[in-house]
Each structure stands twice: as structure tokens, then as C-alpha cells.
């Protein structure tokens, strides 16, 4: 089976380099144009079920895809972004100044990065494991699409291919990109990560 991972489109907070986490920020105009391009990319893919994080930016991304694929979107709470606790709403630069010991370890030592109120990585991993388990169980004979978030998709892909957690930062993909996890019945591979070819016309 193939798991198509769609990261949501751009938001105002992405543009301002703010931690979004579970704060419910919608797509901005750029994001809406991005997901229209992403939907055309998804039109070529073979899947008949589409799941989404409940957050608005992911739902809007899923809705754009669902429209061209003629699918209903199905909410899946496990696809939520990590809760960044006291960092949410802060610019990355502000978090670096206010919590230097935590910001430095966000990507390098995520198991020990726990500012006040932040969801622990172990909890995010548990959510990601449930997604993978459902794919290898209930969905083992079909492909599915999911609309989700940057940090969560990094965790999901890292977990699937057993990449060391201190390399988590290498797994971050840009907005409105496609990644693909493939299950062969025994193990996961990552043939596609952060495919942005559909955005090239916009970039140009």
C-alpha cells in the first residue's frame, strides 16, 4: 500500500515564522493557490480515501484535493500537529531567545525538548504509530491520502523508516508538498519526500 502525505498549504503564521502547533490558523491566499496546485498533483494518484487533521489549514488542503478526486474527507485526530505549548504564537527567533536550551534541541534532541505545555515526542510518536498500524492493518490492500502538518509528518516518516530522532530536522518538508510512504508487507520505504514539482509554476 502507499500512504500519500500532503502537508497543508502556507498560512500567515508560516510567513511570519511562528510556531502554529494546534492553534487553528487557516490558509492564506498563497496557501490556497498552493493547495490548488497540490490538488492537481493528487489527481494523478491512485487513492480512494482521504483523511485529514481536524485543524482548518489541513482541512482546507484536504477539501481542495477531495474536490478534484470526488472524495469525502474523513477527520482523523491522530493527524493533528504537535501541541507546542508555550511556544505557540511565538516567532522562531523569539523562541530561540526565550528558550535557548529548548529551541536548540527541538530538532537535534527532540526527546528532551519540552517547553511548558509542549506535547512530549513520545505522545506524538504514539499517534504516528497508530496511523502506521492502521495502514498496515485496515488499509493494507489500498492506498490512502492524509492531509497533515510539518512536524507531525516528520515524525511519521522518521518512525516508518526508523531514522534516528536526532536527524528529525532533516525530515521537514515545505508547505503543500507530497511525500509517499510505501508498505511492501514487511517494511516501509520513503520513495518520495517533499515533492514540490507541482509548485514550480508558482515559484517561477
From TrEMBL:
It holds the Pfam family His_Phos_1. SMART domains: PGAM (SM00855). Gene3D superfamilies: Phosphoglycerate mutase-like. Substrate binds at residues 7-14, 57. One of its GO terms (molecular function) is phosphatase activity. Transmembrane segments: none annotated. CDD domains: HP_PGM_like. The active site is at 8 (tele-phosphohistidine intermediate), 81 (proton donor/acceptor). This is Histidine phosphatase family protein.
